[in-house]
Amino acid sequence: MSKKVLVLAEVKDGKLRQVSREALSVARRLAAGGEVAAALFGPGNGAHAEELAGYGAQKLYLAEAEALAVYTPDAYAQALTQLVREVQPDVILTGHTAMGRDLAPRVAARLQLGLITDCTAVETSGETILFTRPIYAGKAFQKKAFLEGPVFATLRPNNFAPEEQRTVLDVFPFRPEIKDVRTIVREVVRKTASGVDLSEAKIIVSGGRGVKSADGFQPLKELAEVLGGAVGASRGACDAGYCEYALQIGQTGKVVTPDLYIACGISGAIQHLAGMSNAKVIVAINKDPEAPIFQVADYGIVGDLFEVVPLLTEAFRRVLV
Ligand code: FAD
């Protein structure tokens, strides 16, 4: 049976997030000929309507209230709750981003909906939708399905192929009633200079305690720049003060699924693997041949990262730049 699917899309730094395109592609599959609707919150976001239509959105609920200019839990939860009540979708999808993680449980609780978070795969079996999500810090996967009611799920970025399909889009202005917002965002301060978003990066060069200092990250930054990637880190490197916690990947950091993950001077603790073991190709550079990271690596280089990384940068620069 066809379904009505609502995707809460996200705009960051003026750009539609890749995970929103991915969610629309999943939505089209789940709708099975039914309705694919998108929602965008924030003034000026109507500029992204055409792009949403390029990924199969047939309707866009556009809430351009000033109160939605930046994410606040109160304003966004009120807006999405009201929208879901009005649209009555069978399935609600959003990215498992910082916003999605914060917003989805609030809205699910208000509407008494079940919620499945951090999904890495979505399939259907007859009328049932099966969601796959990692458990035990990524050591195992579980498949879950709802027995009834509207389905709310957050999708892990970089796990679903965004498929283009142009549709005719109808835009509906949506004016939620927003009141009693308890937070005011005065300023958003960026901690990382890199323009590439870690959670959506296709290539990540990551450093661990083996980089030995903040300056030790410089060769990794150069490699990332040549490859058009982002720089990440282990908690060991963050705890040692070599880099910002915003770069931390792992169980208590960001979960990433890049095409290529280059781990430099990272031992491969289970808590780190929880954040990156789903990368498509893993390259490990470590001077200890017994380091556990080599057990999950597709390619391992046993050596000193301060010798190996500059050689890689030079080699890629010759080919790519
Ligand atoms: P180390 O384990 O010290 O490894 C450094 C590696 O660098 C070694 O393998 C060494 O051989 C290599 N090396 C040294 N010098 C060189 C060189 N010149 N060239 C090449 N290799 C070199 N960790 C995370 O990363 N992310 C998390 O989210 C996270 N969450 C945690 C949550 C909890 C509840 C707990 C208890 C721990 C968590 N940790 C997390 C910490 C985790 O257990 C490890 O302590 C941490 O990942 C180790 O970081 P590391 O690999 O950089 O450092």
Straight-line N-to-C gap:
51 Å
Radius of gyration: 21 Å
Overall helicity: 25-40%
Q: Bound small molecules, which ones?
A: flavin-adenine dinucleotide
The helix tally amounts to 9
Gross geometry: globular
- How do the strands line up in the largest sheet? 7-11-6-1-4-5-12
Percentage beta strand: 25-35%
Average pLDDT score: 94
Uncertain regions spanning at least 5 consecutive residues: none
Task: Give the secondary structure arrangement, pairings included.
Layout lengths: L3 E5 L2 E2 L2 E2 L1 H14 L3 E7 L7 H5 L5 E5 L9 H15 L3 E5 L2 H14 L2 E6 L1 E5 L2 E8 L4 E5 L6 E5 L14 E4 L29 E5 L10 H10 L2 E4 L1 H5 L20 E5 L5 H7 L4 E6 L6 H4 L2 E4 L2 H16 L1
Parallel strand pairs: 1-4, 1-6, 4-5, 5-12, 6-11, 7-11, 13-14, 13-15, 15-16, 16-17
Antiparallel strand pairs: 2-3, 8-9, 9-10
Helix pairs in contact: 3-4, 5-9
The structure holds flavin-adenine dinucleotide.
The site of flavin-adenine dinucleotide (FAD) has 27 residues, from α6, α7, β16 and α9.
Offer a quick outline of the entry.
With 321 residues, the chain is α/β, with parallel strands linked by helices. It is 28% helix and 26% strand.
Structure description:
- Belongs to the ETF alpha-subunit/FixB family.
- This is Electron transfer flavoprotein subunit alpha/FixB family protein.
- The protein is an alpha/beta fold.
- The chain is 28% helix and 26% strand.
- It contains nine helices and 17 strands.
- It has helices at 18-31, 49-53, 73-87, 98-111, 218-227, 235-239, 270-276, 293-296, 305-320, and strands at residues 4-8, 11-12, 15-16, 35-41, 59-63, 91-95, 114-119, 121-125, 128-135, 140-144, 151-155, 170-173, 203-207, 230-233, 260-264, 281-286, 299-302.
- The strands form four sheets. The protein has a seven-stranded parallel sheet, with helices on both faces.
- It is globular.
- The mean pLDDT is 94.
- The structure holds flavin-adenine dinucleotide.
- Flavin-adenine dinucleotide binds next to helix 6, helix 7, strand 16 and helix 9.
